[in-house]
Amino acid sequence: MLRFILKRLLWGIPVLWSVATITFIIMHIVPGGPFDAEKQLPPEIKANIEEKYHLDKPFLTQYLLYMGNLLKGDLGPSYKYLGRSVNDVIADTFPVSIQLGVIAFILSLVLGTGSGLLSAASREKGIWMDKTSMFMAISGVSIPHFVLAALLILVLSQTFHLFPPALWEGWEYTILPAISLAAAPAAYMARLMRSTLSDVLREDYIRTCHAKGLSTRIILFKHALKNAVPPLITFSGPLFAGLITGSFIIEYIFSIPGMGKYFVTAVINRDYPLIMGVTLIYAVLIVLANLVVDLLYFVVDPRVRRK
After folding, report:
1. Sequence-ordered alpha helix ranges (H) in 2-42
2. d(CA 174, CA 250)
3. Is-above-0.85 flag for pTM?
4. Mean pLDDT over residues 234-250, rounded?
5. From 26, 27, 240, 297, which residue has the greatest number of CB atoms within 10 Å?
6. For residue 81, what is the DSSP state?
């Protein structure tokens, strides 16, 4: 097991290097620069600023300087948030994004697996539960999360005054952004669980369980569910990383002080180091999430265990 983990972590190094390199190249080949939008900036001042941030050096020199600092754990200074490094910005905002991402992930997992399980169990009987849960799943996939966020603010905050519309000052402030962020993943999970579990329930060993007189609850939770979980685990790994660092628009809409606000402004302002930092955080989370998925496969499915 330890050998497998070390092997996976070592494979993550070239992945992170590739992500850093590709992102660095893309940002520098796009026309314009981080200080081109400044109004009436004298050439001497602009030259001094570019010299300070090594933007006057050749591309290869900039790349080597950045990668050298990256190996030391230094993500560089922010171009737009003066006096703050990218490490400071991420250290201040990442915990908030983690909180929102974890809440949305748990909510999507509970709603998705629950509705998918209920739908698959009632599918053979053709009752209304299956159709209702699939209608909700299709709706969750079809409605963009930023549209759902605006709709929730309008209905639950402005009309009925049940939840605050923005900011991050208590548990009640997490409800609307968590629902907005979890709706689409929950819908995908519900459809995936329904499809996978429905196939498992048609297997011969499930018919044997019914022939032996086992109850539906025992068949569903003890025999069928464990064979329907692996595809859900595969989907959950990248989903967890995506919910933590992919909530940029939701954070921006609800004025949540997470990485989303800074990432959106960094893209607009061409804040290269901050864009690089957030992108690398996302890549690290993807690598770690895939590692956790592989480890969970060892637990839930003995057929994929490696010697």
Report:
1. 2-29
2. 11
3. no
4. 80
5. 240
6. S
Q: pLDDT value at position 214?
A: 85
For the chain, domains (ranges, CATH) are: 92-268 (1.10.3720.10)
**Residues 119, 179: Cα–Cα separation, whole Å:** 21
**Strongest mean pLDDT among 12-21, 30-39, 254-263:** 12-21
- Looking at this protein, which amino acid is placed at residue 189? M
Note the residue count of the chain: 307
> How would residue 87 be classed by pLDDT, with cut points 50, 70 and 90?
very high
CA 290, 291, 292, 295 dihedral sign is positive
Tell me which DSSP letter residue 258 carries: S
CA pair distance 212, 135, nearest whole angstrom: 35
User: Whole-angstrom Cα distance, residue 74 to residue 120?
Assistant: 50
Tell me how far CA of residue 186 lies from CA of 121, 122, 238, 246, 251, in angstroms: 18, 19, 14, 15, 19
Q: Provide CB contacts within 8 A for 64, sequence distance 6+.
A: none
Cβ–Cβ < 8 Å for 256, 168: yes
| β partners of residue 85 | 77
Percent of the chain with pLDDT over 70: 92
264/111 Cα distance (integer angstroms)? 29
